[in-house]
Amino acid sequence: MKNNKIIVLISLLYIGWIASFSQASAADNPFGMGAAFGEWNLPIDANLRELQLRQTLYLAGPKGHVRLWCHPSTAESRAACSASINRAYDLNLIPIVKIQFNQYADDSTSPHVVYKNMSNQLAGFVNELPLRTDRNLLVELFNEPNYTDMWFSRTCNWVTRAKEVAQASAQLAQAIRNLNKTQIKILFTPLSPYSDSNPITNSDGSCGRGDKINLSSRDFVREMKIERPDLFNLIDAWNSHPYPSEDFGLCQKPNCPSMTTDPALVAYKGEMEQAGMPLDFPVYLTEVGTYFSISSQATADRFVQSSNSSLGIYPQLWLSGGPRNNVKGILGFILPLPGYNFYSFLDSCGAVTASAPYQTPNPIYTQIRNLRIKLLGNTPFAPSGTLTLPKSALKCSFKASLDFSGEQGRRQWSYVNGANSIPMIFDPINYRWQGSELYSLIWNSGFHPGVNTEVTRRWKAVKSGTALVSASALDVAPGCGANGVSVYVKKNGTILWQKVIHNEISGYFNLTVGVLAGDKIDFTVKSNGNNGCDSTALDPQIEFTARP
What we know:
The protein is of the alpha+beta class and about 550 residues long. The chain is about 25% helix and about 25% strand.
């Protein structure tokens, strides 16, 4: 039902001009993705770079945008950034460089006002970046410094922090302008629509992020303008990170604003108004998406929630204004990144092949790609060169409770019952899978068999490799007086481990299992003739390494 509502929303917003826009050129392409490699939790890996850039092209199409995370700290990372930009050019993508760097000041005042050394160092790095005559290179200043923990000084006073951000941004923008390279375009420092208003004081006197995320970016920009009103003459485009209000804990579903009324999604308009920017000033939204509500009951179902919300952002931020309004780029956040998979458009553990060059897509990836094709047309996906899987794409983890969802097959898990593996039916009210008997059940971390019907949580390999399979099986109702259950681990029907679980008798398995693509590993709980008090805690974990 939610997907239908989103489809209706999109149809209403662009039905009036879809015919005329169908012939728009690729230069009008606002679609894009965030990619991350060579920095933070990911290694510098040419194969990973190639994979993520192809995944971006597959979604965004020619002249789509790709946000590249670059770090100038070492010669290796600088070379990796240049290689990423050049490859983006080769794939007909428009690169946006997000510079990862610790901001530092030359003075010890509060607020800090001198950032000459840092600005010259970063401008020198930008000066090294490769350029092509047929397109621009967009450079993004810093990243969400309105959050206490995203700015180097960790000041507890947000007004002080806004003044420092204004000084650093203006001085860095001026240093980049002094390079006199017209193809380099400067994007404004992107802010989160809301940030923390109650920083937590650390033992060293600095501050960390507080838990009240209700400080408006509009107020932050107001203080930035007071400090450096000339900053806004030094940038070539606005930049912002729109996320819906639910992400900041400002509301809970179903009491959140709709996509067409949510102020967080159009926070950039309030920011630009405070800065006094003209209405037609170019805008890039280098992070777009939605976090999965903490109140959600299952990780995998949050991907569906994210799909519905993120897809609605496109008509709200771009389509509703027409194909040639001032929003020039809308970039989804993000391709698989350790620690941020709850935002990811792709499942980092999915299959990747040269003919289908994307990891298993979460719903939002497929839906936005289909929207792009409908609006801009489809271009055959045929980049030159072979695709070799990076090592990071060969290793992934699965855990039954974290991956649990109301969808058969999500993250390679399915839910069946009986000797013939009959698919179970999902019960959304009780948030569990229901089998053919009343008490044939599977929930996020446990099982309950029927009298005559076993229940099975099944994991299916999509690649060949090695699976390290482990879990403990426990009686949830010890001392109940029943006769326990039999727990099995099977591969394609062959028993690998089994044990009767009863009262204080528990079981633990740690198995190394070689699998081929399509093999099934079953975790089965079966009654011993009487299913009274047979609730069983069993939360299997699989550490999988694909065969190169």
